Amino acid sequence: MPRRRLDPAAQRRGQMLASRLTQARRASGRSAEAVARSAGISVETVRSIEKGRTTTPEFFTVAALATELGLSLDELYTFTRHDSVHDTQSLPDPSTRTSS
Questions:
Q1: Are the CB atoms for 16 and 82 separated by under 8 Å?
Q2: Helix axes of 32-39 and 8-28: crossing angle, nearest 10 degrees
Q3: What local confidence, expressed as pLDDT, does residue 23 receive?
Q4: Which of 19, 72, 82, 99 has its CA at 20 to 30 Å from residue 8's CA atom?
């Protein structure tokens, strides 16, 4: 059964997810290869998500990437659900997060 075409809102959420994950990875100073290896997923998957080719990645893939990049799933959800254009510079940098 072929996949249904995503509506514009779903496409935008996928783009926002890709943007946030890419931003967090770059802020961490790690390569896509290093993050993929630590998360236990393929580098092709990481690149596909970051480039927006995979707009609806599997939950456990997103969870593994979020863990490796110090992002909470709540943060990713909030970020991707926000309707206005984001200034990604105003979001907290995960590399400076302190643990409680």
A1: yes
A2: 100
A3: 95
A4: 72
